[in-house]
Specification:
five-stranded antiparallel beta sheet; 13 helices; 445 residues; seven-stranded mixed beta sheet; 2 domains; alpha/beta; globular; Aspartate Aminotransferase, domain 1; Aspartate Aminotransferase, domain 2
Length: 445
């Protein structure tokens, strides 16, 4: 195809309403025709290194034939059947069996959804259900964090701690309380003398519990590494303290590992970096590397017991049409096989170390304030002044566009440029990210 044909496709695309859409941000979209490995090819002939693995999720890269065949073979046999009570299917049985204890010991039961937003809504409902079954129906509130992202279904929207997602959909829900995130570069809370950022952020959780009353709080939700909020890697002392606080006040800990799960950070699941496990785990994205729509939650054996022993009038009345979708689960099984065979968490650790070290060389630019990351999940924060750490979202957007013109796709998250390429990326392709981003910055200096 050529530029004229691409322009026609873009005009026809106007019939589609895109996610988080404004017409000013969608005047010249990339029209992607195909992908191979870490590369995307557009209808007008561009070859682009996808530094975002689609939307944090295409871990095994584009064009994987094994996943295509897994979907084809399952669709031939049986693409879909209801998985509501009274029916099941073989791929969902096998995938749930594979996932039992896979992420964290004691999380042996899986509920399937279609994606991350549905997963987190399911987590919130499950937390409420659990406390009602335990005779504590007033435990309904959810504590989340400023800058946290948990999806855009109605309930997940207001768990998300980013105001721009709330503005046109309010009023919100009083059941969500937001506290400062453990951001070592620009912590928004108060730090007492002698405290670390991790201790101060954990104290913010405990103080919120005191204010609201532990008897009203169902759960605390957190991304191990914050994604949309700017790729925030917490201090090492933070999550062990969080786990202690949740246990002390009988509050469920929900780990939103929609982005960080399945190898992205150099561990199969990110909380393992800190030796912590949640009560509920939300997952999606890389469970199928984006080749099919699948997400879900895993719950502790204690929560499973509350569901299993419920009287008929207190049944777990929750589910989606595509819960346990046969084709998606078949793709998920094959995807996990591929990632285990290739030791993808180790690939993420090695390539992530190379990427982070390379990005840090760009701190010579006067506007690169902070470079951070864990595994193949990195962020470059752009500032107008390094001393004051004043964020500069406008300049970050300018650098993003310049990098794209150099054939590199990142994602501007406020003042932070995010990088999370497919885990199949090779050393020379990691180096291309640094080279192309550096060229984009050099043209702006």
């Amino acid at each position: 195809m050529n530029k004229s044909q691409t322009a026609q496709w873009i005009e026809r695309d106007r019939q589609q309403l895109h996610p988080v859409y404004h017409p000013k941000s969608h005047t010249e979209p990339l029209v992607i025709e195909r992908g191979e490995g870490v590369w995307l090819y557009t209808t007008d002939g561009q070859k682009i290194l996808d530094g975002m693995a689609g939307l944090w999720n295409v871990n095994v890269g584009y064009g994987n034939e094994e996943l295509a065949h897994a979907a084809y073979e399952q669709m031939q046999q049986m693409a879909f059947t209801s998985n509501f009570a009274g029916m099941t299917n073989l791929p969902s049985i096998l995938l749930a069996e594979k996932l039992a204890g896979f992420a964290y010991q004691g999380l042996n039961t899986t509920f399937f959804a279609s994606g991350g937003s549905e997963a987190n809504d399911s987590a919130f409902k499950t937390a409420r259900y659990y406390w009602k079954r335990k005779g504590k129906p007033n435990k309904t509130k959810i504590i989340a964090r400023k800058g946290g992202y948990h999806g855009v279904t109605m309930y997940a929207t207001f768990a998300t701690g980013l105001e721009k997602y709330h503005t046109m959909f309010g009023p919100g829900f009083a059941d969500f309380i937001h506290i400062p995130a453990p951001n070592p570069y620009r912590f928004e809370g108060a730090i007492k003398p002698g405290e670390t950022v991790g201790q101060a952020a954990a104290r913010a959780l405990e103080e919120a519990i005191w204010r609201e009353g532990a008897e009203t709080i169902a759960a605390f939700i957190a991304e191990p590494v914050m994604g949309v909020g700017g790729v925030i890697v917490p201090p090492d002392d933070y999550f062990p303290l969080v786990r202690e606080i949740c246990d002390r006040y009988e509050i469920l800990f929900i780990a939103d590992e929609v982005i960080t799960g399945f190898g992205r950070t150099g561990q199969w699941f990110a909380l393992k970096h800190w030796g912590v496990k949640p009560d509920i785990l939300s997952f999606a994205k890389a469970i199928t590397s984006g080749y099919a729509q699948l997400g879900g939650i895993q719950i502790s054996d204690t929560i499973r017991d509350a569901i299993e022993t419920a009287p008929e009038g207190e049944a777990y009345m929750h589910g989606y049409t595509y819960s346990g979708h046969a084709t998606a689960c078949a793709v998920g099984l094959k995807n996990l096989e591929i990632m285990e065979r290739g030791d993808f968490p180790e690939r993420a650790r090695q390539m992530g170390k190379r990427l982070l070290e390379g990005l840090k060389t760009l701190q010579e630019f006067p506007f690169v304030g902070n470079v951070r990351g864990l595994g193949l999940m990195c962020g470059v924060e752009i500032v107008s002044d390094k001393d004051t750490k004043t964020p500069d979202p406008a300049l970050a957007l300018k650098i993003f566009k310049a990098a794209q013109s150099h054939g590199l796709r990142s994602r501007p998250l406020g003042a932070t440029l995010a990088f999370a390429p497919p885990l199949v990326i090779r050393e020379e392709e990691v180096d291309e990210i640094i080279k192309r981003l550096g060229a984009a910055m050099d043209g702006i200096r």
